[in-house]
Design goal:
CATH class of the largest domain: Alpha Beta
Number of domains: 5
CATH superfamily of the largest domain: P-loop containing nucleotide triphosphate hydrolases
Shape: globular
Number of helices: 29
Radius of gyration: 30 Å
Low-confidence stretches: 1-5
Mean pLDDT: 89
CATH topology of the largest domain: Rossmann fold
Number of strands: 27
Strand order of the largest sheet: 5-14-15-3-16-17
Helix content: 25-40%
Distance between the termini: 64 Å
CATH architecture of the largest domain: 3-Layer(aba) Sandwich
Strand content: 15-25%
Length: 791
C-alpha cells in the first residue's frame, strides 16, 4: 500500500458539515447555510430575525424527528409527533440535544432535586445507610403516600375461579397533612363572604357568585340552611354545609343539580388552574382570599416523621435537601462506604456539576417553578456535563441569560469544553462575550419578522466586526455613563429583609428614577425585590414567565386590542361583535376558525392542510363582506403592528382604544409583528416585550422589570433604554433587575448585591451612582462595568 493512499482522507471523515438548503420555517426565506461540525457556532441577529427558526425549528427539530423514527411504532405512539420542517435538504445531521429556556414544570411537587435525579440517588443512599433502617427508597419520597389494605382477590387458575385473601402495604415518605407539597393553603373566610348578610342578600365576595345568579340560586334553594338568616347566626352544621359539604344531588325549581360546599367548589374551579392563566380579577381574588403557610406537621420539608427519623451522621434526608448544594457536596465527600461506592461517585459528580456551572447556591428542595429562565437552563445542562457522548450536536438558547458578566466566563468555558470533546455546539446568543469565543458565526437579519429571515454574514468574529451587518456595526457599542443623574422623588424603604438568602438587608430604593439592582447570579436580587417590596406600593411586575397561549391566541387577543376592533366593525356594519371573532360566531365552519385542518395520523406526524373553504382566513365568507375603512377583519389581522397603527389611527378606520395599544407595541419595538400571528411562533424576547406593552397601561407607579434585555439584540438595547427613560419621564419609578452593562451604565442609581451567591451573598455591597461604582471598582460588578465603559 503506497503512502499516498494511507494519507488520503477516509470517506467517513469527509462529512464535516451540517448543510441546510432552502429552509422556510416561520420567516426564513429559502435560507441555505453550511455549519462546521465539532466547532462552536454562534447564531446572532436582532430579536425575531429567524435564529430560533433556523436552529431549533429546522436543524434540531429534524434531528429529533429522525431519531424518533428509529423507534418502533408502539414506542412512537407515546412520543410527541413532529412534522418535518419546511426545508429542501438537511444533510450531515447528528443527534441533537436541546437545552432551551423553557421554564421547568411549575408542578408544586417538582424540586431541583427531583428534576435532576439527585433526589433519587439520595433516597437510595438513605435507604442503605440511614439509621434506623426504615425501608426502601420509596419511604424517603415525598411523592409516595403510605397506603395499606387487605381484601379478597379473584383470579382464574386451571379453569377454576379461585378466591384468596391478600394484604398489601406501601411505605411512602409523603407528609399526610400537606400531601408532599410543603405548604398548606388556608381560605380567609372574610374574603369569601360577608357574614352579616343572609344568602338571599348576596353575601359572597367571590367573582361571579351573585345572589340573583346561578350560584345564588343553588345556595338559596339547597334547603341545607335558612336563606334569610345572616351567616354569622348559622349553626355549626349549617356552616359546615355551606363551606365543606360533599357533592350532593338536589332539586332547585324542578331542575336536578349537584350541590357542593363553597371551599371544595373554589378549589376545583380556581385553585386547580395555573395562576398565570387566570383572568386578572380572578387572580386578584385568589391572592386576597388564600394564604399559603409552611405545613405545621412537616415544617415545609414535605416528608413524614418516619422519613425524617432515619439519619446518616446525624443528618436526615430533609436536612440534606435543605443544605446549599456546595455544602451538600462537601458532606457527601465525607461519606465513605464501599457498599454504595458507585452511587456516591455518581451523586458526587452531579453535585459537583451544580457547583461548576455556578448553581452551588441552590438547594435540592427549591421548587423548580421558582427558578429563573437562566437557572432552569443551567439545571438542564447538568445532565450533559459529565456525559461521555461525543459527536452529538448541543443546541443552546441564550445560555448567558441571568448571568453576571463574571459568570459568563464560566459558561464560555463549559461551551468550549463540550466542543473540545468532539461535539458540535450551536448557540443562539446576543452577548458580545460569547460571540467572541465562536469558531464560526451565522448572522441573520437584516430586520425582524418579514424583514428578516436571510443570512447577512457567515464567518469568524473579525469578519463580523468588519462586516456591515447590524450585529457587526453594534458589536463594539458601549453605553456611556450619564453626565448627570435624576434626583429621586421619594424612596421605598425596605427594612430587615431576610427572604431566602438575604441577611437582614436595610435599603432605600429611590423612586422616580431608573434604579438597577445587580449582582452575581444567586446573590439575592429577585428575593429583595419580590419578597420585600411592600404589596401596597402599586408595583407592576414584568417577569420572564412564559405567556400561556395556544395557536389561536395572537397579539391582538392577548393585548385586548381585538375587542375595540370587533366593536368598531360591528358598529360600522350594524351587526353583532361576535361575528368578528374566529373563536366564536364568525368562525369558518369547516375548520372551526383555526385556518387549517389537522389530520391526526397516530404515531406519524399529523398533517395540517390549509382550509379550502376560507383559504386560511379563519372567517366565514359572509363575515369578510363587512368592511371598516375599506378593509375586512382578516385583512386587518394580517397587518403588521406598524401598518395597523397607521390604519386604526386616522380616517374611517379610526379605533382610538386599539390605536393606544398599538402605539405601546411600537414603543417596545414590536412594530413588525402581525396582529394575527399565533403566540406560539413568538421568540422569548418578543413575548417579554409583548407582556411589557400590556402592563404599560396599568395604573401602578412602580415598574419592576426582571432582565428586560433577555432575547434583545445589541441594536434593540438602545431602544429599550429609550423606553425606560420615557417611563421614568412620565412620572413612573422603574426598578430593573439586570446584568447587562448597558443598562447599568444608563441607570441613575445602582444597588449591588453580593459579594457571592447563596449564603456568601445576600448583602448590599454597593449603593450609589454608576459613576461612583466605576470609580470605586470595589465589587465584581464595578470591575466589569469599569472595563465596559473603558474607565
Amino acid at each position: 500500500m503506497s503512502t499516498a493512499t494511507t494519507n488520503a482522507l477516509h470517506v467517513a471523515d469527509s462529512h464535516d458539515l451540517i448543510r441546510v438548503h432552502g429552509a422556510r420555517v416561520n420567516n426564513l426565506k429559502d435560507v441555505s447555510v453550511e455549519i462546521p461540525k465539532r466547532r462552536l457556532t454562534v447564531f446572532t441577529g436582532v430579536s425575531g430575525s429567524g435564529k430560533s427558526s433556523l436552529v431549533f425549528g429546522t436543524i434540531a427539530a429534524e434531528s429529533q424527528r429522525m431519531i424518533n423514527e428509529t423507534y418502533s411504532a408502539f414506542v412512537q405512539g407515546f412520543m410527541p409527533t413532529l412534522a418535518r420542517p419546511d426545508v429542501d435538504v438537511l444533510d450531515g445531521l447528528t443527534t441533537a440535544i436541546i437545552v432551551d429556556q423553557e421554564r421547568m414544570g411549575s408542578d408544586p411537587r417538582s424540586t431541583v432535586g427531583t428534576a435532576t435525579d439527585a433526589n433519587a440517588m439520595l433516597r437510595i443512599l438513605f435507604s442503605r445507610l440511614g439509621k434506623p433502617h426504615i425501608g426502601s427508597p420509596q419511604a424517603f419520597s415525598f411523592n409516595v403516600a403510605s397506603i395499606s389494605g387487605s381484601g379478597a382477590v379473584k383470579f382464574e387458575r386451571g379453569g377454576k375461579t379461585v378466591k384468596e385473601r391478600r394484604d398489601f402495604s406501601v411505605l411512602g415518605g409523603m407528609c399526610p397533612n400537606c400531601e408532599g407539597r410543603g405548604s398548606v393553603n388556608d381560605f380567609d373566610l372574610s374574603e369569601l363572604y360577608d357574614d352579616g348578610k343572609s344568602i338571599n342578600e348576596g353575601p359572597f365576595k367571590v367573582p361571579g357568585y351573585s345572589s340573583d345568579g346561578w350560584y345564588g340560586r343553588i345556595f338559596g334553594g339547597s334547603g341545607f340552611f335558612d336563606p334569610d338568616k345572616p351567616i354569622r347566626d348559622f349553626t355549626e352544621q349549617e356552616l359546615h354545609d355551606l363551606l365543606y359539604k360533599e357533592p350532593t344531588k338536589i332539586k332547585v325549581d324542578g331542575i336536578n343539580l349537584t350541590y357542593e360546599g363553597l371551599i371544595p367548589k373554589l378549589q376545583k374551579s380556581m385553585l386547580a388552574k395555573d395562576r398565570e392563566s387566570m383572568q386578572p380579577h380572578i387572580r386578584a381574588f385568589v391572592d386576597r382570599a388564600i394564604t399559603f403557610t409552611d405545613c405545621p406537621e412537616c415544617g415545609g420539608t414535605r416528608l413524614n416523621e418516619t422519613a425524617r427519623s432515619s439519619k446518616i451522621d446525624g443528618i436526615s434526608i430533609a436536612d440534606a435537601c435543605a443544605m446549599q448544594i456546595n455544602d451538600l457536596a462537601e458532606w457527601t465527600r465525607g461519606l465513605d462506604d464501599s457498599s454504595v461506592g458507585p452511587l456516591l461517585e455518581t451523586l458526587q459528580q452531579t453535585l459537583d456539576s451544580f457547583v461548576e456551572i455556578g448553581l452551588g447556591y441552590l438547594s435540592l428542595d427549591r421548587p423548580s417553578g421558582t427558578l429563573s429562565g437562566g437557572e432552569a437552563q443551567r439545571t438542564k445542562m447538568i445532565r450533559h456535563l459529565g456525559s461521555s457522548l461525543t459527536d452529538v450536536t448541543y443546541v443552546f438558547d441564550e445560555p448567558t441569560i441571568g448571568l453576571h458578566p463574571h459568570d459568563i466566563q464560566r459558561m464560555n468555558d463549559l461551551l468550549l469544553r463540550l466542543r473540545d470533546k468532539g461535539n458540535t455546539v450551536l448557540v443562539v446568543e446576543h452577548k458580545p462575550q460569547t460571540i467572541a469565543i465562536a469558531d464560526h458565526i451565522v448572522d441573520l437579519g437584516p430586520g425582524a419578522g418579514t424583514a428578516g429571515g436571510t443570512i447577512c454574514f457567515e464567518g469568524d468574529v473579525e469578519g463580523l466586526r468588519a462586516s456591515d451587518s447590524v450585529t457587526g456595526r453594534h458589536l463594539e457599542d458601549r453605553t456611556k455613563l450619564k453626565g448627570e443623574v435624576r434626583t429621586p422623588t421619594g424612596q421605598l424603604e425596605i427594612r430587615g429583609a431576610n427572604t431566602h438568602n438575604l441577611q437582614d438587608v436595610d435599603v432605600d430604593i429611590p423612586l422616580g428614577v431608573l434604579c438597577v439592582i445587580t449582582g452575581v447570579a444567586g446573590s439575592g436580587k429577585s428575593s429583595l425585590v419580590r419578597g420585600s417590596v411592600p404589596a401596597d406600593a402599586g408595583v407592576i411586575e414584568v417577569d420572564q414567565t412564559a405567556i400561556r397561549g395556544s395557536r389561536r391566541s395572537n397579539p391582538a387577543t392577548y393585548t385586548g386590542m381585538l375587542d375595540p376592533i370587533r366593536k368598531a366593525f360591528a358598529k360600522a356594519n350594524g351587526v353583532k361583535p361576535a361575528l368578528f371573532s374566529a373563536n366564536s360566531e364568525g368562525a369558518c365552519p369547516a375548520c372551526n376558525g383555526a385556518g387549517v385542518i389537522y389530520t391526526d395520523l397516530a404515531m406519524m406526524a399529523g398533517v395540517a392542510t390549509t382550509c379550502e373553504e376560507c383559504e386560511g382566513r379563519r372567517f366565514q365568507a359572509a363575515v369578510l363582506e363587512y368592511r371598516l375603512g375599506g378593509k375586512n377583519i382578516s385583512e386587518v389581522l394580517s397587518m403588521s403592528v406598524a401598518q395597523a397603527e397607521e390604519f386604526l389611527g386616522e380616517g374611517e378606520g379610526r379605533v382610538p382604544a386599539a390605536h393606544k395599544i398599538l402605539q405601546r407595541l411600537v414603543d417596545v419595538g414590536l412594530g413588525y409583528l402581525r396582529l394575527g400571528q399565533p403566540l406560539t411562533t413568538l421568540s422569548g424576547g418578543e413575548r417579554q416585550r409583548l407582556k411589557l406593552a400590556t402592563h404599560m397601561s396599568e395604573k401602578g407607579g412602580v415598574y419592576v422589570l426582571d432582565e428586560p434585555t433577555t432575547g434583545l439584540h445589541l441594536a434593540d438595547v438602545e431602544q429599550l433604554l429609550g423606553l425606560l427613560d420615557r417611563l421614568v419621564e412620565s412620572g413612573k419609578s422603574v426598578i430593573v433587575i439586570e446584568h447587562h452593562q448597558a443598562v447599568m451604565a444608563h441607570a441613575d442609581w445602582i444597588i449591588d448585591l453580593g459579594p457571592g451567591a447563596g449564603h456568601d451573598g445576600g448583602r448590599i455591597v454597593f449603593e450609589g451612582t454608576p459613576a461612583a461604582l466605576v470609580e470605586a471598582r470595589s465589587t465584581l460588578t464595578g470591575e466589569h462595568l469599569a472595563d465596559y465603559v473603558g474607565a
